[in-house]
Amino acid sequence: MSDTPLDEEKPLRERIAANPRPALKWLLGAVVLLALELGAVVGVVIKLLLTVARLGPLAPNPVAAALASAGEAAAGIPTLLSRSLIPNDGFQPGGTGAWTGTFLGLEPKYAWLIRVVLIYVYAFVWLGWFWVGYRWFREHYRYADWTPRDDVVDRLRGHRWGQFGFVLVLTFFIMALFAPALGPTTVDANIQNPYTHYTEYYDDETETLQNVTVGTANLGSTSQGAGGQNVGPWTYDDYKRFHPFGTITNGKDLFTYMAAGARVSLMIGLVSLIVGAGIASILSMLTAYYKGLADLATVVASDSIQALPVLLVAILASAVFSGTWLANLYNGAVMLMVIFSLTYWPFFWRALRGPALQVSEEEWIDAAKSFGQRPRTIMRKHMLPYVTGYLLIYASLTLGGIIISVAGLSYLSLGITPPTPEWGTVIASGQPYVATASWHISLIPGIMITLIVVGFNAFGDGIRDALDPESEGGGSDGGEAAIAGGGGA
């Protein structure tokens, strides 16, 4: 441990000012990595601001117009891992030889594969750089030589099942984050507005270069199982467009659909978790601190919600609010966020209630009260850090369930409305063709949903065992009771 007395500890910014070299080195590396994707980062920020601006008045919004203009300008900012720098669209004159319009004249599937590999390498480099930053923080800026967090990190590093889940979760996050660049084509061109975009192909019969709308090309590239109408995984269609996962029933690219759908599912899941977990965290600390009537009222409210099946409530709410202004916000995504936030907070509260009640009876809480600390300060400084670990465990286990629920509602045509991509919608469209040559339409999304849910569950198990080593392998009832939201101390 450091010899520096606790009452002489300086704020982090002062420690960095006293020894700025490690922080500046890390910041410089982060700036270089960020600069490689500057155009994409600026574009995402502007798109988020534009979405918020459009949720305002229905009248013409000058802020939205300004942001739209800024978005067009941001599209011109160089981005290393972009479709424009590593293109996979092109044509092959005469049907043989080098390709025109692709990266280095490579075959489209290889150009696309290079871009995908580079994107995932870039993401894992960022992950490694964050780890370097954490190590430098421990070495140069943290007073304590050891904290309980170090043991948590070390246990998680040795937890193979948790690491497997982390890799799956990270793969899903990267797919959602880099969806515009990962797809062999764009959502706007191939899915949302196919008749306003064009694609070039070489016509072998006339030996000329032809130009056709993407919508027309999609109609000639459908996968409907019978009569030779199928474009399977890792193949080209008649217009020499490469499809890593094949096409769906209307000829649109399945991989592009899946990548964009991952972004929609992740956004709904994360927002629902943040809102629901925020409500549960506040209520868990309030009820644990004040007990009595506050705890009783929350128990009644949470039990009333938990008595109903979540999916059934979501189906009912989706049906009731369909066609309303709420269902039209972001093609139904906002409605699903509200539904899952209001239906999942009781589960989070139940998971946090036991740990919150337990910590509220500890001696240091009584000491803080005797020193005159305000309840809000006690909850924030002494109770919240204790329950945060349990919140992380339950959040990782719940996010996969929300993704399945979103897919299920979309499968029933009650979730995200077309043309916005969602995994459940494409599974429903491909169900009649499961036993045909177009099996990929439903099977690939189904496998991906299964892997994502397994990944979140495995990662949650890893976090649980890292935070509470006695629960590893299910050998301790204490960890399981906390997760299940057991009673108080």
TrEMBL record:
Region Disordered, residue ranges: 467-489
A GO CC term assigned to this protein in UniProt: plasma membrane
TM region(s), chain numbering: 26-50, 112-132, 164-183, 264-286, 307-327, 333-352, 384-417, 437-459
Annotated ABC transmembrane type-1 domain residues: 262-460
Membrane topology category: Multi-pass membrane protein
Localisation per UniProt entry: Cell membrane
Primary location group: membrane
Keywords: Cell membrane, Membrane, Transmembrane, Transmembrane helix, Transport
Bias-annotated ranges (Gly residues): 472-489
InterPro entries the record matches: BP-dependent_transpt_permease (IPR050366), MetI-like (IPR000515), MetI-like_sf (IPR035906), OppC_N (IPR025966)
Pfam families named among the record's database cross-references: BPD_transp_1, OppC_N
CDD domains: TM_PBP2
Example GO biological process: transmembrane transport
Family: Belongs to the binding-protein-dependent transport system permease family.
Protein known as: Binding-protein-dependent transporters inner membrane component
Organismal lineage: Archaea, Methanobacteriati, Methanobacteriota, Stenosarchaea group, Halobacteria
